């Protein structure tokens, strides 16, 4: 007969902070009395680093790949039950884990799901059974977020970033500049250092253009760097793209820029000795003939609680 069980966390949103207790229970439902060889619960926190398939590291390959080994942040095991029996009906085993990293890096990085960097926290419950009965396991993921104390409060740079895009401002050779349609696009971002729970805001104005515009897009990129002093690999990949304008835009019209950052796929900007997670915004203008230009803006993200300073 099958055993149905699940890991239940006390906190419904599954968001926890360093220094808190992770509490909950493992609930079993058995149709009949069932033997087992022990029930073990494991708390795991890992940083997994990967290389893109196109990367080649040459002579320093061995040292480089060594620096990409998974980084263990949390690893605790708790025996919920010694070998015995699960009674028919509902059984619950309660647990409590302190969320603290006692060795290097001595900090719990925030949960992040990237392409080449993946920071993940989970509970794994294993029900050991005899040779003839298959052992069972369940996994329950949860999120870690930063929570700064008042003494660690970050004061954001409240500075507008103005931009002006024209053929002369783009990094093109002289021949490309001559053949490029003449245009001038100006605008601003309210700030490029902000809390990731707040939207990215700004505005854009097409002052004039010789060629009709097909589309204007705002693109959020993750910049993931893996490696160390022995070598590193840096990759930029798209998180999300939103269309700001469709079709030819009226000159002198202020167009608002507004982007909400997705949860899990973003985190506070993070720089460590083995990896870096950074973010950028691309402003992309596509003309009617599919000629494309883009301007890049690095951004710095923080996790703030209460009103951002």
TrEMBL record:
InterPro entries in the record: Arrestin-like_C (IPR014752), Vps26-related (IPR028934)
Biological role: Component of the commander complex that is essential for endosomal recycling of transmembrane cargos; the commander complex is composed of the CCC subcomplex and the retriever subcomplex. Component of the retriever complex, which is a heterotrimeric complex related to retromer cargo-selective complex (CSC) and essential for retromer-independent retrieval and recycling of numerous cargos such as integrin alpha-5/beta-1 (ITGA5:ITGB1). The recruitment of the retriever complex to the endosomal membrane involves CCC and WASH complexes.
Q: Name one GO biological process term.
A: intracellular protein transport
Q: What is the organism of origin for this protein? A: Glossina pallidipes
What assembly does the database describe for this protein?
Component of the commander complex that is essential for endosomal recycling of transmembrane cargos; the commander complex is composed of the CCC subcomplex and the retriever subcomplex. Component of the heterotrimeric retriever complex consisting of VPS26C, VPS29 and VPS35L; within the complex interacts with VPS35L. Interacts with SNX17 (via C-terminus); the interaction is direct and associates SNX17 with the retriever complex. Interacts with SNX31; the interaction is direct.
What is the annotated signal peptide range for this record?
none
Q: What is the lineage of its organism?
A: Eukaryota, Metazoa, Ecdysozoa, Arthropoda, Hexapoda
UniProt protein name: Vacuolar protein sorting-associated protein 26C
Keywords assigned by UniProt? Answer: Endosome
């Amino acid at each position: 007969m099958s055993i149905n069980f699940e890991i239940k966390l006390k906190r419904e949103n599954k968001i926890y902070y360093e220094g808190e207790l992770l509490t909950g229970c493992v609930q079993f439902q058995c149709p009949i009395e069932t033997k087992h060889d022990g029930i073990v619960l494991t708390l795991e926190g890992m940083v997994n680093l990967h290389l893109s398939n196109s990367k080649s590291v040459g002579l320093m390959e061995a040292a480089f790949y060594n620096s990409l080994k998974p980084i263990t942040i949390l690893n605790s095991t708790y025996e919920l039950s010694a070998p015995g029996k699960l009674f028919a009906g509902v059984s619950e085993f309660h647990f409590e884990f302190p969320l603290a990293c006692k060795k290097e890096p001595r900090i719990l990085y925030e949960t992040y799901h990237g392409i080449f960097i993946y920071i993940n926290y989970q509970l794994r419950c294993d029900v050991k059974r005899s040779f003839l009965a298959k052992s069972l396991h369940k996994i329950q993921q949860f999120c870690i977020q930063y929570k700064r104390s008042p003494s660690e409060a970050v004061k954001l740079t409240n500075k507008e970033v103005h931009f002006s895009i024209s053929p002369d401002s783009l990094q093109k050779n002289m021949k490309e500049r001559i053949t490029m349609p003449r245009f001038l696009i100006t605008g601003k971002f309210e700030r490029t250092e902000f809390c990731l729970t707040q939207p990215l805001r700004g505005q854009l104005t097409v002052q004039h253009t010789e060629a009709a515009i097909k589309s204007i897009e705002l693109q959020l990129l993750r910049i993931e760097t893996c490696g160390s002093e022995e070598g590193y690999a840096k990759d930029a990949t798209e998180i999300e793209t939103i269309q700001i304008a469709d079709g030819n835009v009226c000159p002198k019209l202020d167009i608002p820029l507004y982007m909400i950052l997705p949860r899990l796929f973003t985190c506070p900007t993070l720089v460590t000795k083995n990896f870096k997670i950074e973010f950028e915004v691309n402003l992309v203008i596509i003309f009617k003939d599919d000629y494309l230009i883009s301007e890049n803006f690095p951004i710095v993200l923080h996790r703030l609680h209460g009103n951002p300073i």
